[in-house]
Amino acid sequence: MTLRLQRRRFRFALLQPLRTASGELRERCGWLLRLENDQGAVGWGEVAPLQQQQFTACEQALAALPDELLQAQLEAVLREAPGPVGFGVGAALAELQGVVGVASPQGWLKAPAPALLLPAGEAMLLALEVAAASMCGLESCTLKWKVATAPDALERQLLDQLLQRLPPTARLRLDANGGWDRSTAEAWMQRLRDDPHLDWLEQPLPVEDQAGLEQLAALVPVALDESLDQHPELRRSWSGWQVRRPALEGDPRLLLRELQAGLPQRMLSTAFETGIGRRWLEHLAGLQAQGPTPAAPGLAPGWTPAGPMFSNDPEQVWAAAA
After folding, report:
1. Which of helix, strand or coil describes residue 242?
2. For domain 116-289, is the CATH number 3.40.190.10?
3. Spatial distance between the Cα atoms of 94 and 88, rounded to a whole number of angstroms
4. Residues 6+ apart with CB under 8 A from 145
5. CATH superfamily of domain region 2-107+310-320
6. Were 43 and a residue from 95, 127, 193, 262 both cysteine, which residue would form a disulfide, CB within 3.0 to 4.6 Å?
C-alpha cells in the first residue's frame, strides 16, 4: 500500500520560560506529519526534538523520506530514526492502522487530573499561592517543583516553606534534572525520606552516576527521566518509577503495549506538544490511570498557550501551523 507523506513546520512560545538545571526552554518547534493511504484514511504525527543538537538529525531524517512510500519503508525508518522522528512516524502509522483513534475500540482516552508544574526558584511560592486560590485548596493535588536551579541553601529554605503550606494529602515531586551531586542529593533525601508528601525525587543525579541513582533509590523513591532517554535499555531494567515522554522516545506503539499489559510505575510526561502529540500523551496517561500504579501525569497545565494549534482536532492544528 502506497502512503503519501506531508510535513509542515510549526513553532510556538511557552507562556513563561521553563528553567531547569540544564538550561531554559522558551519555545518549541518541529514538524507536523500527515500520512494518507490509498483509501483516504489519515494518520497524524509530530516531530519536535527537545535538545537543539537533535534538531539537525531529525531534519535530515525527515528530508530523506520521499513524499510517496510503502508502509514497509516507514517501518524500516523507525528502527534507525532519532526518537522524535520515531514518535511522529509511529504515531501516524498507528492511527492509520486503527491501533488508536476513532477507528480503535477505545477511541482517544482522556487523561486524569495532572500534576501542577511549579516554576523554579522563588517564583514557586507565588505560583503555589495562585494555584491554591484558583483551585480552592491543594488537598488532592500532586505538585512538581524544578530544583537545582538556584543556590542549594536558598532552595532548602524554599522547600521548608513549601512543605509548611501543603495540606497533609498533597503530593510532591522534586525534579533536579540531574543537577545534584551525591552529597546534595543525600541531604535532600534525609530531609524528605520520612515526609508523607513525597512522591519521588526525579533524576536527582546525573545520567552518568547510575550507581548513585541505584543507591539513592534503595532509601527513597527515585524516578528516572533523562537516564531513560540516554540509555533506553533502562526502560526494561529499572524497577522504580519511570518518567516517560513519548514524544521523544520513539515509536509510541511500544509504550502503548507496555501500558496495555499493565506494567507498573510508568508516569507520562509532556515535552510541550501541539494538539496532535497531546492526543497521544493524554491517551497513554488514560491507560496508565487504569493500570496497577495510577499516577498524576505531567501535562504542565498553564504552560502552553491556547488556540487551534493545541486543538484535539488535528486538521485545526495542521491549519494553524501553515
Report:
1. strand
2. no
3. 10
4. 118, 120, 124, 162, 172, 173, 174, 175
5. Enolase-like, N-terminal domain (3.30.390.10)
6. 95
